Amino acid sequence: MASERNRVRLYAVIVSVSNWSTFFRPRTITWGCEGMPDITLDVASFAALALPVDRVFITENETNSLAFPPAAGAIVVFGAGYGWEPLARASWLHRCQLHYWGDIDTRGFAILDQLRGYFPGVASFLMDRATLLAHRLHWGEEPDPARHDLARLTPEETAVYDDLRFDRHQPRLRLEQERVGFGWFCDRLACLPSGALVAPPPRS
């Protein structure tokens, strides 16, 4: 019985979602798709899926999504940007622990803020001050920074966002997610709690 439970739960998938279709690239999958080519579904079919997943990682970089290591009971979603309506239609996603991994720049936090409008409990991943400061040699420049308030960020995220939008480290600072060291990434991934995520507190 234990081996059957593990057979169902140990897999990872790469997914790309657009307004028109959903693209699957099976990897290390144990739920019947082993060896299959890329799969494309329309949004309604994606929403109707009942995948045995507990955790969903959302990333804005294709290279990172393809390099993401297999994770127990998890899938990786790539490339939604600001368009979250297709994902929000999938009711099964609302039962999962969601982690958003974007660039550490003002637009990355703006995307996170918009995503929380559809999935209030989503947690940011590798978008903290420690990650930013540990990768100073890889800092770049954001071409068009956001400057407006973001009401759905946690206090910790707001502190980093304010440092960025007010140019406290350097003007137009950006740390692209693909610049984060793989060892740093793996250490943080291994430290993620398995329990329920804490949604950011509501703001008046």
Gist?
Helix content is 29%, strand content 19%.
Could you walk me through the main structural features you see in this protein, from its secondary elements to its overall organization?
The protein has 204 residues and is of the alpha/beta class. It is built from eight helices and nine strands. The strands form two sheets. The protein has a seven-stranded mixed β-sheet. A two-stranded antiparallel ribbon has the order 8-9. Helix 3 links the parallel strand 4 and strand 5. The longest helix is centred in the C-terminal third of the chain and has 11 residues. The radius of gyration is 17 Å and the shape is globular.
What labels would you give this structure?
204 residues, alpha/beta, 7-stranded mixed beta sheet, two-stranded antiparallel ribbon, 8 helices, disordered C terminus
Topology of this structure?
Blueprint: H1 2-9, E1 12-17, E2 21-27, E3 39-42, H2 43-47, E4 55-59, H3 62-67, E5 74-78, H4 85-88, E6 97-101, H5 106-115, E7 123-124, H6 129-134, E8 140-141, H7 155-165, E9 173-174, H8 182-190
Parallel strand pairs: 1-5, 4-5, 4-6, 6-7
Antiparallel strand pairs: 1-2, 2-3, 8-9
On the 0 to 100 scale, the average pLDDT is 78
Percent of residues in beta strands? 15-25%
Largest sheet: 7 strands, mixed
Helix and strand succession? HEEEHEHEHEHEHEHEH
- Indicate the low-confidence ranges by residue numbers: 1-14, 26-32, 195-204
N→C terminal distance: 49 Å
Q: Roughly how much helix do the residues carry, as a percent range?
A: 25-40%
Shape estimate: globular
> Whole-number radius of gyration?
17 Å
Secondary structure tally: strands: 9
Number of helices: 8
- Structural class assignment: alpha/beta
The largest sheet has its strands arranged as 3-2-1-5-4-6-7
